Amino acid sequence: MSEITAPKSPVTAEQFADEIREQLKYAQGVTVEQATPADVYVAAAVAVRHHLMDSWMQTQHDMVNGTTKAVGYLSAEFLMGKQLRNALLNAGLTEQYNAAIESLGFNLQDVVDTEYEPGLGNGGLGRLAACFIDSLASLGVPAFGYGIQYKYGIFKQEFDKDGKQVETPDYWLANEEPWGHIDYNRSQKVSFGGKVVKEGGKKVWKPAWSVRAVPVDYMVPGYASGRVNTLRLWSAKAEDEFDLLTFNRSEYLSAVKPQVKAENISKILYPEDSTKEGKQLRLEQQYFFVSASLHDAIRVFYPGESKPDLTTLPDKIVFQLNDTHPVIGIPELMRILIDEYGYDWDTAWSITNKTFNYTCHTLLPEALEVWPADLIGELLPRHLEIIEKINEQFEAELKAKGVGAVTIKDMAIYTGDSVRMAYLATYGGSHVNGVAELHSQLLKDVTLKNFSDVYPDKFTNVTNGVTPRRFIKLANPRLSDLITEGLGTDKWLSDLELLKGLEPLAADDEFVRKFAAVKQANKVDFANYAKREYGFDLDPDTMFNTMVKRLHEYKRQALKILALIARYADIKSGKLSADDVMPRTVIFGAKAAPGYYLAKMTIQLINNVARVVNNDPDVKGKLNVYFPWNYNVRLAQHLIPATDLDEQISQAGKEASGTGNMKFALNGAMTVGTLDGANVEIRERVGAENFFLFGMTVDEVDKLYADGYGPRKYYEADPRLKAAIDMVADGTFSNGNKDTYAPLVSDWLSKDWFMTLADFHAYTAIQSEIEALYAQPLEWNRKALINVANSGYFSSDRSISDYLERIWHTGPLPALA
Ligand SMILES: *Cc1c(COP(=O)(O)O)cnc(C)c1O
Questions:
Q1: Per-residue pLDDT tens for 46-73?
Q2: Do 599 and 554 touch, CB atoms closer than 8 A?
Q3: Which mutation among 117, 549, 639, 654 tests ligand 1's pocket best, with the greatest number of atoms within 8 A of CB?
Q4: Does the Cβ of 606 fall within 6 Å of ligand 1?
Q5: 1 with 57: CB under 8 angstroms?
Q6: In 105-261, at which residue ranges do the beta strands (DSSP E only) sit?
Q7: What are 583-601's pLDDT values in tens digits?
Q8: What are the phi and psi torsion angles at 649 (to 5°)?
Q9: How would CATH label the architecture of 518-773?
Q10: Quick one: CA dihedral 212, 216, 222, 228, positive or negative?
Q11: Which InterPro entries has this protein been placed in (predicted)?
């Protein structure tokens, strides 16, 4: 590997400028004078890749040739956010680049602004995967992220004149995409359908059709680690283009069909919660990327070996299944080992079992994937046989352990009609983890209780985290500077627990004032951003109160909007004198799955409440509501640092962890929240007196379900709640049309599965406490600073360290010379 030179020594701005000039000229064919910021962006990105190339090769070399086990993070989503600034930060090149780009007559921000965000995820789960690969590289742990390069990411959201969500396709690859390298020479063949036949006493799968999985490689530079890992996203291409030539002209169109069908596999990212749509295509996607990734790992770790000793596979790589989406990997690895490499069942099982681990991300039973057996049988007949056999072995094992017949039936992986992917993952892998303490406990007590009873040692917790590089340093440069000033070092960026050192400064009024000034400046920035991007007029002298996350009933955007309407009514009716009202700007951001009717209606309601409230002179300056469309990582990076109060108000027991809550706490927002997900741990760490807690606990929720929940009782008992719901029903927010929100109102009054009405009173009651504190800016900011100081635990570096210790049993590559 002599062509790897030592990772490049610090380069100068002049060298970068030259590289960009060369790239512009020889690859893009434009002079610096002709170049637009978009041209410079592409050239700059390519130059960054060049600069990272040696470290990338070195990392792969050390990974393949050393003894450190690698991590394969299998995830259907990676919600990366923009790349340029992040790559520069992690590689320590920001200053040289700024200077280089300026010397060419451009401004880095203009260049960065032309970058288009890849939306290859729905929300928290995809963003978690992106934070994790950042942390793996930053800790120097060799790793692959494996996923799908969707042609269309999560839809772009717009609102029509009625305030309804309109989805438009996100064709992100229409723009030049300089980060991903398409490597046709490392393609994998992935097959589907057909049947299983017996040949010489052996089962042989004769698939009906195949596609070519082409890897698109993204470099993942670690922060200050000198290591660069790989995010390998698979793109589907027709398998055998040559075949087309055998067709004559008249058959040309039908000959192209298989190609179109093949390329459909990686065409779109499925919106979460749209479970009915495209089931088959979704299973095809899952198998497609997992099969390609497993074969790829064998190619990487046993280069050139036709008969590799795959019993060593668990020493080379450990796979983490990010939710149930990649779980088909378990029978796939069994099939590869038995059918392709000739291992016996028990050896194959032992290898597979040691190689996989499973992260569960939900408590909602409907979100645990269950596939109809006939669908699997049609698409992956050999895998269905293997799953049946796994299930037989599992039942025998349970029986031997003395588990009763009824329980065994309850635990079936394969029921005869369907395959339960969460159960397959729990049995098939070494460890199962939830994503926050409370969630992991509920997995053991409820969702996977039988499994935890039989295999208690498999279960563990890893609380989620977020990367401080993107979500503090890049998103909030002012706070970053202040933290560095306060701590006297910037080492906190790779050791976030150091934030604890800020705690004594909370007693220092001067420091707290500086902290408050950072927030104020961020609010002015966001107001300018919102004006430029959305045409909104936000007043930075009001409290910025934010609720951003996917729209889902369990997250309870409805609770926020009903409380807001009640407040609006109080001001209008004079019950609350305008002088007593703490001025607030409420900001929502949320996409709803296209097929999720009530969620979309909630969006429409929020938009129309915003329209009515913002145009009502009676509440002018007291209450404003804004809903910037198309919530994504970019908007998160702008909005979170500008937020005073964030909302984490899901029904207790429903949000597995949340990561938005962590981003806000780390950026000095105060949180109003329930005892759900990681809120519990945030509150424990920052202190109960620095967190606005309200609402029912998991136990109270359970009891209320058990007693028979009737929402109407709460409506009748609370005149403010009644007034708010009545306003939605009577057409106040629909130009007098009483039908517009009827389904929503009816759901609230008759079902309200997530108990919004039951928590309404507690939620509105805590607002006076919030406002009393906000009226004392110094005290508010002191508490917000204490939140920052005590949230270092929520770094994704800590999450990854926990995975390394509890689940993966590996660590960093040897230090670079
Ligand atoms: C962090 C993040 C999420 C997750 O937010 P939650 O409040 O934890 O649901 C979703 N979308 C984007 C763009 C994010 O950055």
A1: 999 999 999 999 999 999 999 999 999 9
A2: no
A3: 549
A4: no
A5: yes
A6: 143-148, 156-159, 165-168, 181-182, 188-192, 195-199, 202-206, 209-221, 228-238
A7: 999 999 999 999 999 999 9
A8: -115, 25
A9: 3-Layer(aba) Sandwich (3.40)
A10: positive
A11: Glycg_phsphrylas, Glyco_trans_35, Pyridoxal_P_attach_site
